[in-house]
Amino acid sequence: MRWGIATSTLAAGLLVGASCGDVIGLDAQDPARGPGQLVGNGSPITDGNFRGGADEMPAPRDVEPPAAGLAIDCDADCQAYCDGLPLENPVNLGMCEVTWGVGLSTRPIERNQACRRLFADMLGRYPNVEELNTVCAAESWGETVKQVLADDDFIRVQQRRWADRLLYNNRAVNFERAFDMDELVGKAFEGRVAWDEFAAVTAAHPVIMRRLDTPADRAEFMFELFLGRPPYEGERSDLARLYRLWNNGYFDHPHVGRLPDSYIEYACVDEDGNRDTNTIGECTSVLWGHNELTLTPDTKRITKDGELEGLLWTGKLEPNEWKALQLPGRIIASEPAFWEFVVQDTLTRYLGYDLAIEAPAVRHELVRYLLGYEGDIRALHFAIATSFAYLQSSQGGSASERRWTYGPYKQIQVEGWLDSVKATTGYDLSRCDHRLPHPEDYLEENDEDNVEGLSGWAIALVRNTRWDVDDDLEVETDYRNLARTLGGCPSNEVGGRFTTVSVLNTAVQESFVAEVCGIGDARGVGIERLLPDGMEPGTVLDDAAAEAIVEHNQALFLGRVPTDEERDEARAAAGQCSPAPCDAEAFARPVCFAVLSSSEMLFY
Amino acid sequence: MTKRIKRASSLTRRRLLQGAGLTAAAVAAPHLWIPREVKATDAFGTAKHLLYIRLSGGFRFPVAFNGDTGSQFNPFGLASGIASGTEWGVGSMLDQNEWRTDELAGLGMKRVPEFTNEMAVIPCVDHEPLAGSADGNHATGLERFLTGEVGGQTGLFTMLNYGLRERTEAETAEGIVSLPAIIMGESGMGRGSGAYAAYRPAVLRGDDLDRFASGATNELPEWARSMADGYDARNKDRQNEMHAPTVDAYIRSREATKAYADIFSSDILKVGDNRDDIFDGLSNPQMAEVFGDSNGARNVHLALRLFHFGCPAVYIDQGGYDMHSDEEMNLPGRMEEFVRILSGLEWSLKRLEHPDGGTYWDHTIVVAGSEFSRSARGARFNSARGSDHGGDFATRWMSMPFMGGPIGAKGRRLGATNPDDLSPEGEVYSYRATWKTLMDFLGAESSEFFPADDPYDALC
Predict the structure, then answer these.
(1) Residue B243: Cβ-neighbour burial (10 angstroms; 0-12, 13-18, 19+)
(2) pLDDT for A18
(3) A373–chain B Cβ distance below 8 A for any pair
(4) Any chain A CB within 8 A of the CB of B306?
(5) CB-CB under 8 Å, A411 with B246
(6) Rounded to two decimals, what is the model's pTM?
(7) Do A578 and B235 touch (CB under 8 A)?
(8) d(Cα A24, Cα A32) in Å, to the nearest integer?
(9) Is the pLDDT of residue B209 over 70?
(10) Comparing C-alpha atoms, which of A597, A424, A595 is closest to residue A512?
(11) Per-residue pLDDT tens for B375-415?
């Protein structure tokens, strides 16, 4: 049973599940529970056909570009030039006055290189050879981006990103809340929840509320999350009054024991729900209009005894109560800075810098564009990924502070690197699930918080996640351990993910690649992966075979053909391979290491 | 209901569409920079190593440290047979000794109460001394423990590596490869971005040590090594000059991995080996026998071996003390590992010979803390015979122990609490100041962090 389908029966179902151990409303295969179930249950808010995906890269106006260090001034001629360009993409429209209009040029990019970047950014891994020949070779770049936006991995990447932001941790917050929030993120990036509605629901979501301690902490977190800045003291204390009702407590889950969860206190009202004139100020924000936030007590639903007596478990909230609690998010989303921040944040994510600082018109155009598509966040991603700020080569050119005149170059996230290695080599490695960082908690007996010991429900829960569980009910941790060492798959006790180049990280990466490729004592992946079709492992190595092996590995891992220099290097290496004559396998495994461990796999 | 929400949102968007871009205004906050005196203690640079143990989940400190309080705070009572010269109350949970076989006792491993006069205890270490109440929230309490504050962007161990950067650079210039501070627990201790990103400590997991040690490139034929280098060099040359440093950092890190591989492949770090080779005066089997074979014990064992390579500090998570229920029954058993670790540390640190002279005890500090303490809200236990965490004094005070040769205040209690309500009756030390004090002991410059908190001399 899903909340969005039968909301009126929801609370009743939960009550049964929570108090009697009945499984109604407690589905191990779909444990999501929370306000995310109430929204986004219809069709996408737009058809997903966004404009601006087929602009031609403009030539720069024939004037001397402004010297380095000088401010850029787009005069009347510049404006006229930009107005005359047939541009539809909002980023292109906005950046013209600091680029082509003043005589600066942008750098075209080769299609496969662009698609490699797009896949890494949007799908969290590099494309394979087949995808380079299909998705990446679509009729237009806009069509390629559209196909990638519709890929399930695009949703998964966004969900993982929000898991990092909201620090999902099943020891800190009831896992059902993380699953619910994860679904909400998915709905937003499927275009089924507008961005301001997403903010409203998120700003009163138990997955965040339970992680924070005070109303002021919650107000500050929301400012940072959706406006990108800490609140001024007056803003913090004012918005905090709309978080006065939230409390932290524990929910006794009938199958997995005691879980941290959020509770509601009926503050600022009397027992009949009438505003209490003595305390109503504690629940009233006045900085963005006069807003009071109270709920009417319901003695049937409140906790009857114990330390949480008189409080309402948020699992029993009705839809209209959720809506009331979402007031802070609606207030934040009414700020122009709310839309500007999501634009800047997304630009920074794709470009590695905030283009809107140097080109404020880009921000303006993107906000208009996003609002024109009813807040469908997919539109923003489409616009940036089809813009020439993004669609430029990172190679060549001089060292200019004007970052938008050459392409971005970033480090791939840990999971992207690991998943690409897995996908291209077929190496056997398990998985990680950001919704449940500690799955082992539900597969261990005699946990003091687990009132029923090891339950079938808990086992089903973990088995239905992305974690791999073996026959002995042990979670496969090879992927997780490796990823966490490198900075990914965070447990989120405290902000966990990091992306860095360090000596110890590099040592681990090299070691893993050596294991995958079969260097030294490692068995490595099947040699057939590393050899061109039809080449036997025992084939005697000559120049042609060496070139073919290098060409195969580069296509497999880097998605490009060797340069002349690389072909020369392949032949030279074949000459040094010993004991001569080498066979194809003895050559292919070190080549695999050389290519797979290269900086081209780490940066894109 | 959903439709109503959508309609309201659309109206908001239309209004914004009309005004978008017209309302942006930058508000510049005034910024005054006032130089302040850098404070260092008399203990600056007197320690070489720190073992920093988190008693994870929220530890009920008075059951072990600062135990001479009311039974509502320490329902397990006090230990007996306490070493003379111990000022602080030794809780009976420090005397859980089922692990202490005749054989181990014969080796010289002591009950912890026999050497409590070698530990200083600060009864009141407070995450947030100016706050009106304790932070009893797991998430934010842990953030405070790992970074010093809620939302802290720099982990304490990142601060330490950063504070030692000049020493590290000097050693590197002399061709000395020393390990940095290392995390073997919650990785939040190693947060860091911007200027601090390069000083993030390595996060070690026991089963990943082999990866650090493999020295993968040693197994490569020379032509393949050249080929790998060639890919990186060409990639660097191809990129825009502004991107080249990104690739260059990777190239340099690949060159440096060789030195670390030599360290991590060293036999001294193979703590599970049965070989009787003696390192710094003790073999790994000897130490394994003393510490035991639990995960926490193996981590401590490995930490002491990492110190051999110049590692200034290791952070370890131990335990799992979030006992909302059945604490009365289960805590004594849960304490066994920690007690054995303390005893094992006292035993081994005094026997391990330090490469710079003396024993490791002379150069090492052992500290334990947690995200918060625990409360049963005035009762000995809650209704489930466990304890919780809220906003009271019982939750608030970490009563932290400090052990090791560099600690001057051995056996002393630095501060006091009222036995009836645990209100402070002496000095309350900020957690941030405490961390800066530990950085000070290690010779790390700390003035850049937590400017409102100064290191203190009380432990000297």
Answers:
(1) buried
(2) 37
(3) no
(4) no
(5) yes
(6) 0.78
(7) no
(8) 13
(9) no
(10) A597
(11) 999 999 988 899 998 889 999 999 999 999 999 999 999 99
